[in-house]
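ligand=tetrahydrodeoxyuridine
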Amino acid sequence: MESKELIALALAARENAYAPYSGFRVGAALLCKDGTVYQGCNVENAAYGPSNCAERTAIFKAVSEGKQDFAKIAIVGGLKDTKTFEYCPPCGVCRQVMMEFVNPKTFEIILWAGGDQIKTVTLDELFPMGFGPDNLGK
Ligand code: THU
């Protein structure tokens, strides 16, 4: 699937963002190796701590539906009603969660800053020497 198509799905997911506290709305679209896509948005909470990022929503949705082989994820984020986007790199917790399921050298993270501005990086580039299942012999 083309990056642009995955970005469009992330933008659609962002429409459902529940972000009354930060006002920062994020959408993600996770492409599985079997071609299926799981979308996610951030879901905040009045107690702040229980808030969930868009990326983790998408990953947990996929895992809960029996999918664990992921090819790439597109992430888009920006303040509430913005029409202009900056690249929205995943937080450290989401990077760690990705580390659990993907090969960091090949898993692609697609970031978008509007129009044709697309940045594609691997998890390894964003999270070098990340601790993962390998470290536990799994
Ligand atoms: N957030 C995400 O959903 N994904 C990211 O990559 C960065 C941050 C959310 C968490 C919180 O709801 C809001 O954006 C502001 O941090």
